[in-house]
Amino acid sequence: MALRAAFVVALGMWTAAGCDAGAASRVPTLAALLDSIYPVGVGGCSPLPATLMPSPPAGESVESVASTVGAEEGLERSWGGLLGTNSTNITDIDLYLLELADVKGGFTPPAHEEEVLSGAEAGYIQSLNSKVFSINVPFNAAYSKGVSAECKRQSAQFFRAYAASNLWALRMHDASAKVGQGILNGNINQYGDFDQCLSIQQTLPVDGGTIRGRYCLAEVQPTIQPGTQMLKHIFDLVQAHGMLKSNLNDPGHRVPRFSTVHWALCVPAGCTAEDVQQSLSEFLQHYIADTGVQTEVKVHPALCQMKHYIWSEYFTDRTRLVWYGFLLYALLVFASTLYDLKTHDKVEWFTVFSLIKNTRSILSLKEERNDIACVHGIRFLNAMLLLIAHKCMALFFNPYVNRTEMSEVLGQPWTVIGRAAAIFTDPFIMFSGFLTTFSFVERLQKGQRVRLHQEYIGRLLRIVPPLGALILFCTFVLPFLGSGPLWNLVVTNHGDICKRYWWRNMLFIHNYFGFQNMCLTHTHHVGIDTELFFVAPLFIYLVWRWPRRGLLALLALAAVTTAQRFYVTYSLRLANYVYFGTSVKQLFETADFMYTLPYYRVTVYIMGVILGFACSKYKTMKLSEKQLKIGWYVSTLSIAVAFFGPAPMGSLHYIYDPLHAASYAAFSPIAWCLFFAWAVFTAHLGYRSKATAAKRFRKRIGFMFRFACFLSRPPLVDKLIDFFSWRGFRITTRISYAVYLTQFPIFFFNVGRTRAPQYFEFWPSMIFNTNEYVVVFLASFLLTVLFETPFINIKKMLFRSKHQPRAKEQASATDADGTPDCTGKPDTRTDVDENENSRPNYVH
């Protein structure tokens, strides 16, 4: 200690000519405090001349001598790595260290303190700093020579204040991420203290300037040298067995960059994202040299945030205009509701936006015309499976202290429920074709005209207002409702994309431009369904005008598209199933080249067209007991194969096979939808299963055969159909479009607000996370009652037939030739109009 103090005194005497006398006289006073903060050779206004540097022994460098001195005093610090090799930066730090104006004893007290600290207290702070706050070396944002001059200046001010134990500097260092426990259990994503960093704002006594904190979430992609077995095993644990592979070039706003390290750094606001990236990259290169590990660093400007960043950068005149628009719309809804509440003789147009009227409409359990009851339950089942699958993907954004353990839990075959999300959307496409065809053919059979322009306008009136409202909300409102480390990535970034490409969504062509540049990526299904709806009249006309040749033509088209799905998946090595070890790049390519394109999804839509034609054309068809038995066995076996067949692909040790992926992509949509198509067809005809399961099937070894036999038992089939036909599912059908629209914004809202690692447990995180699910359904109800149901009312009034009786008269109208629904009861209503089943079939 004495050696270092004497060295600093000598340095002060050497610099007296270049520094003011006061600064030079304070050097001995600073020595005791600086001993524990800065290395040997840092104490003057300019770099230490070579003549004053200790002469290193032969074969040793100056740095080794400095480290030896530090080791002798029990203070092993890698300050050479902290300050870097840039002498210019060291000069700046030395300059500010010695020019501590109006401060005694080398310690700058907080601005609100007037008294001078005693020598004992200064010693306490010195000890506290060296033993607590200096356990982890502060990050030097000016480590690189290429950083901006402002970054160098503010970094020097930070280190000067840190050396003096100023509270704001200690908080800045404290807010940065530190290496913690559980690294081998995947605890590698550290978010630091987001709010503490952004709250830093300090006026400096030297120049009167203000330093603010900037929170940067750096992304680091580590790689190891090939042929290193031990390193490979360690990194396999650190990166959670590579459950979802990613790199820095992958878009991270829709699917997480799971294998990328996220590390928080709190730096002075004068340092930009580019400065931090350069300094961190060069520091890691020096730090991990000769370790067999290489790193690539990226610091995105959107992930370098300051306090009120969103308000200063994103609140524009357009934002203000949208807010006023929502306010005016709310006033319109309030006025309509008040009119509905206070008026007896109501004008129907004035109650269109009434909350009272629209809430009653949504919660009504009354059967609609030509209502296919069991479709509601099937929709609900697939919607909930999708909700769980999407929630699982959203959870992968969050940091976990036991992420490796999480991967091991989820690397098992039973996780098929979350990995097979793609096939859960296919029933909605099939039912879209089914209900459109059923409605059209019913009208054609009764001699009614199908006015396509009314159908198209009616569909647009249903889907455009909720979609437009959600885009405006997510673009101009949601970014201002929260903050967090990933907020700009998963919330604000979607708004930026929507500002550029919202028009594609309004034209329903956004699914052709890829996930990366798609406004609200989860709305791709809106484009697929709308495009198929616009070409559906051609399919329906074929089977109506030429039933046999039309059916053959549709079957041929379905076969061609199935073969194309197989080919494109095999040749491009795509993955429609989220197998263990898949990559973000592979998932995006699957979406861009197959999943979001209607040509590859038309197979199940054609199944729906054929199902709708059969249900409408062959109402009196009689099926024998043997036909029913075979139908149920085949359909239940098909759904078992579709669901359980790819289960091994979720295993921890699965290796990608393009043949497996191609077979799954080609045939699983058909197999999954076949069960639901058979259930609707038989129940619509009024059948209940009368057959007993054959014992020879039960004796088969294969699990899927046993499952098919179990599921196809008559009592279970009847209970299943009755469950799907429960009247309460009519409510979930009415809000299903809104559930599809709102779930991802809500998931990402919570991801963006996450500030610290969590402990992963499957049941509490996935199944029993009722708060998030309740919010999804409440938000869906609000979106439906405010933006969907009112325009359904407008559509009904616009296209009401002159000869169509009023609603009260329609309720009592009957039709002797009614059609049975899923409960086997005949339909006693007259006209065929769009009912609850013909709502847009979206939940994905």
Automatic annotation (TrEMBL):
- Any Pfam family matching the protein: NRF
What keywords would UniProt list here?
Membrane, Signal, Transmembrane, Transmembrane helix
- Tell me the first and last residues of the signal peptide: 1-21
Q: Tell me which PROSITE patterns the record gives.
A: PROKAR_LIPOPROTEIN
Any stretches that span the bilayer, and where are they?
A: 321-341, 378-397, 417-440, 460-481, 526-544, 551-570, 599-618, 630-649, 661-687, 735-753, 773-794
Q: Where is the Nose resistant-to-fluoxetine protein N-terminal domain?
A: 148-295
The superkingdom of the source organism is: Eukaryota
* The name this protein goes by in its record: Nose resistant-to-fluoxetine protein N-terminal domain-containing protein
Species the sequence originates in: Anopheles atroparvus
Give the source lineage, highest ranks first: Eukaryota, Metazoa, Ecdysozoa, Arthropoda, Hexapoda
